[in-house]
């Protein structure tokens, strides 16, 4: 009858509606194996939980043809054995039908958050995979089941000064000077970033507008990916050229799943490096040539206030 694994499918059911877990938590649920062939003969069935980074590089061959190379670093892996032969049995046989097993796997306390989508590079991803052992050869069954994992980043415990105001500033060649104050250094999704801008414009150059945005960066195995979280404009500044302008600004951090600020380096067997960081970006647009400039203000994004 053969192994039968290629014609079997797997369904994962978790103890919660969304497969999102914090570092240190126990992932629990059941996995269902549907055997569609007459029989499935194996030496072992186990569940694997894997954490891996993925990144890409470019290379050129002798004919100057460029190609993209994809790399993976498995920094975390654990195994949960479901079934082994008993006594003198050499293998297990599962006939056509459905089989299910409960499972519980604990996540480590210190792991990087899920970053980016699994199909995009670079990324940090976690997934569950049912596997069989047949004659000493491991073989996966069914599709990988991705889960979302976040470390706990408590602003009050891990960033003691997160309530401290942050000052920033920059200027351009036309002597437009922008100074500002951010109300604090740390935020969580769903919070409003607020502050004040002070503009010194002695030559009364027309300031067209000031755009602001919340931006994130993944740096995984030295490859970066940038993404926007939210965008807006500073109200009350468009088309002004006064010598001194003072305005308040605000922009929301959406209340959605966002990787927290985190820096990781390490792993079980293979070393991985991954960092997630955030910045508030001001883009000052003024009349004239080479007069536009920007200000980048870093802040910490946590998972708990």
How are the secondary structure elements laid out?
Blueprint: E1 8-14, E2 20-22, E3 26-42, E4 44-60, E5 66-83, E6 92-106, E7 123-134, E8 137-150, H1 155-158, E9 166-171, E10 177-182, E11 186-187, E12 192-200, E13 207-220, E14 223-233, E15 244-252, E16 262-266, E17 272-286, E18 293-301
Quick rundown:
The protein is mostly beta strands. It contains one helix and 18 strands.
What does this structure look like?
This protein is an all-beta fold and 305 residues long. The protein folds into two domains: 9-150, Immunoglobulin-like (Sandwich), CATH 2.60.40; 155-301, Immunoglobulin-like (Sandwich), CATH 2.60.40.640. 1% of the residues lie in helices and 62% in strands. It is built from one helix and 18 strands. The chain has one helix spanning 155-158; strands spanning 8-14, 20-22, 26-42, 44-60, 66-83, 92-106, 123-134, 137-150, 166-171, 177-182, 186-187, 192-200, 207-220, 223-233, 244-252, 262-266, 272-286, 293-301. Strands 11, 13, 14, 16, 17 and 18 form a six-stranded mixed beta sheet that branches. It has a five-stranded mixed beta sheet with strand order 2-8-7-4-5, with no helix packed on it. It has a four-stranded antiparallel beta sheet with strand order 9-10-12-15, with no helix packed on it. A hairpin with a 2-residue loop joins strand 13 and strand 14. The radius of gyration is 26 Å and the shape is elongated. The termini are far apart.
